[in-house]
Amino acid sequence: MQIQWQNNTTITIKGKDYRVIINPVEAEEAKFIIPQKENDLLISTKPIKISDIKGFHINGAGEYSYQGVTVRVAAIRQIEDEDKINLISLSVENILVAIVFGITKELTTEDLEFIGSPDILVLSLSESFGSEKSLHLINAIEPRIVIPVYTQDSQLQGLVSEYGIKQEPQDDFSIKKSELPFDIVEIKPLIQQIKS
Predict the structure, then answer these.
(1) Which one of 19, 27, 54, 122 has the largest count of C-beta atoms within 10 Å of its C-beta?
(2) Within a domain: residue 21?
(3) Whole domain around residue 178: which residue ranges?
(4) What is the DSSP secondary structure assignment for residue 107, as one 8-state letter?
(5) Contact 107, 121 (CB under 8 A)
(6) CB-hemisphere CA count at 13 Å for 15?
């Protein structure tokens, strides 16, 4: 499995027989951030509809299976009168990946139960959900690896001071099930491939 951070909250997860694009567009009727392929699995963390898709698009709650990837999506609303956001759980190559983008408040017990105990947590850091809240979430979920998506280097500093980072940000992160760490949380920052 290889993970790349493309732009903002767009990431790709790919292997030999599949490619998953999280947030392929930023809003309805927007251009695709990266060119899509015929069999791509496209998943949005906001419940938006996308036209002209070549693969299979998931934008709402449910359980799905496509190209050997099992997907569970829970739609949550953190603030009344705001749009729902999708929590995503992927199972691919026997690795469980949770995608948590766009949250502004700490997750409920029900939300945490949905996420479970992923091997990898891909988490967006923002002004409203910075490193302190992220540390609480990481401690509650206890993933083996955290891949942060952030807009400012300062948002990463809280994670660095708590867990340390053994390497500079990379263009991509590749791992097999047998290579997952035990009894520790590793932070794996990535380099944004497409600058805004």
Answers:
(1) 122
(2) yes
(3) 2-187
(4) P
(5) no
(6) 14
Domain count of the chain? 1
**Residue with token string 């990463």:** 156
Phi, psi of 8 (to 5 degrees): 50, -110
188 has pLDDT over 80: yes
Q: What is the DSSP annotation of 28-91?
A: TTPPPSS---TT-EEE-SS----SS-SSEEE-SSEEEEETTEEEEEEEE-SSTTSPPEEEEEEE
Name the packing angle between helices 131-141 and 153-163 (round to 10°). 40
- With respect to residue 24, please indicate whether it lies within any of the assigned structural domains: yes
Closest CA to 82 of 106, 55, 104: 104
Distance separating alpha carbons of residues 126 and 132, to the nearest angstrom: 11
Q: Let me know if residue 194 belongs to a domain.
A: no
The CA distance from 189 to 124, in Å, is: 11
| CA 122 to each of CA 28, 81, 135: distance values in angstroms, whole numbers, following the listed order | 23, 26, 13
171-181 tens-digit pLDDT: 999 999 999 99
- Return the percentage of the chain with pLDDT > 70, whole number: 98
